[in-house]
Structures are given as structure tokens and as C-alpha cells.
Amino acid sequence: MTLVGRILPWRDPPRLGPRYVVQGRYPASVPVPYQEAFLKELTLLFPRDCRRSQRAAAIEMMASGAFDTGGLISETRPPDMAPRTYSALAEADPALLTVEFEW
User: How far is CA 51 from the centre of its chain?
Assistant: First the structure.
């Protein structure tokens, strides 16, 4: 992992360095180069909050066309391919970012 941001000078009072948001869920650890993060005063955020109202708002935005998810979908597949699809996603197949099922 290469961290973007400049090394901050040693001074008082400290300034806030860059913030990295690690979004999603990962099957293994997320490596962070400690010395580089330390010198840049990096802040790592791992949000995992998802409220019912947030999900409802996201669905409303997609339904109204305000939020287009078309570019996020790697492939559309029939439901009978679900077992193979879930296996490929679990193995982190680089060809698949997300898959939608055509019902």
C-alpha cells in the first residue's frame, strides 16, 4: 500500500494529516506501512455503520435516478449462476467487482 500525502514537519501544535477511509469488508488484514503513516500523521477510518434510514435513502436515490449504480456492476447473470458467482466473489476474482442477478 502506498500512502498519498506529505510528511508533516515536527511542530506544535500538530496539524491533521490525510484521512483514509477503508470502506467495505475484507477477508484478510489491510496492510499499512507504519513508518509512512506515522510521519504523515495519517488517520485511518473504518466505518461500519448502516442504519435502516440510510439504506432507505440510498434505495430512493437509486430509484429516482439520482444515484446511478450502472458503472459499479461488472456483470449481469441469471439466478441459476448464483452458486458459481458467489464462489468467484469469495475468491476475489479480479474480473468481478459486483454482480447483479436478472430476475
Answer: 17
Contact (Cβ atoms closer than 8 angstroms) between residue 74 and residue 92:
no
Judge whether 1 and 33 are in contact, CB under 8 Å: yes
pLDDT above 80 (res 9): no
DSSP letter (8 states) at residue 2: P
CA dihedral 86, 66, 70, 45 (to 10 degrees): -50
Domain segments of the chain as ranges = 1-48, 52-101
Give the per-residue SS3 of 7-68: CCCCCCCCCCCCEEECCCCCCCCCCCCHHHHHHCCCEEECCCCCCHHHHHHHHHHHHHCCCC
Check if the beta carbon of residue 4 is closer than 8 Å to that of residue 29.
Answer: no
pLDDT score recorded for residue 4: 67
pTM: 0.39
pLDDT at 83: 92
